[in-house]
Amino acid sequence: MHTQHERGRGARPLMCGAIQSLPPTLVLDALTAASVDDESIDVMTDLRCEVEKDHPGLHAGVVRLLYGSRPETVWTQWVDWRAPAGVLVLGDCPGERRVPSGRDDWCGLFVDHPGRCSFDLVDPEHEAFMAANPAYRRLFAGGAAGGSRPEGPSS
Q1: Residue bearing the bigger pLDDT, 55 or 134
Q2: What mean pLDDT, rounded, does the chain reach?
Q3: Does residue 150 fall inside a structural domain?
Q4: CB-CB contact of 51 with 58 (8 Å)
Q5: Is residue 118 part of a domain?
Q6: Nearest 10 degrees: CA dihedral of 87, 45, 128, 16?
Q7: Domain total for the chain?
Q8: Burial (CB count <10 Å: 0-12, 13-18, 19+), residue 26
Q9: For residue 149, is pLDDT > 90?
Q10: In-domain check, residue 155
């Protein structure tokens, strides 16, 4: 079954969405990859590739958001069916677009990522969740089309 975003001309491209788990041996690496004066030290271990579907090269998923003075995020990369072998700190993509509501919509990917910026991609998992949960659709209805994130560039 195809969603409305997969059919027809002018359809927005899909996010890859390949899944992988961060090996427990990399959690400490993720915590120490960058030091920031931040109380939040959440490490994401359930990963989804966030770049455009059918992208060249490695899959990439966010491991840890950094709220320091530099716009960067801790990422990991992997090849299909193989666990990530390391983590790396990558600068945030400077991609930005203005949306009709006047709010900024930032790209949540890394500098020089393959494919289009995240704000141009459709996340099929998010779309399915929203379709199945009308209450959440109403919560997001006040925001910009495409689900603009007010958190800033490292979301």
Answers
A1: 55
A2: 81
A3: no
A4: no
A5: yes
A6: 20
A7: 1
A8: buried
A9: no
A10: no
What's the residue count for the chain?
155
pLDDT digits (tens, 9 = 90+) for 31-73: 988 876 656 678 999 999 999 999 999 999 999 998 877 899 9
* Cα Dmax for the chain: 47
β-pair partners for 104: 98
Q: Is the dihedral of CA 120, 46, 154, 91 positive or negative?
A: negative
Domain hosting residue 78, numbered range: 19-141
**DSSP category for residue 15:** B
Domain-embedded: residue 56: yes
Round to whole Å and give the CA distance between 104 and 110: 17
Main-chain phi, psi angles of 32, to 5 degrees: -105, 0
DSSP SS3 for 154: coil
Residue 101: pLDDT band (50, 70, 90) is low
What pLDDT was estimated at residue 108?
Answer: 93
DSSP class per residue in 17-84 = --EEE--GGGHHHHHHSS--S-S------EEE--SBTT-SS-EEEEEEE--SSS-EEEEEEE-TTS--
Residue 99: band (very low, low, confident or very high) from pLDDT cuts 50, 70, 90: low
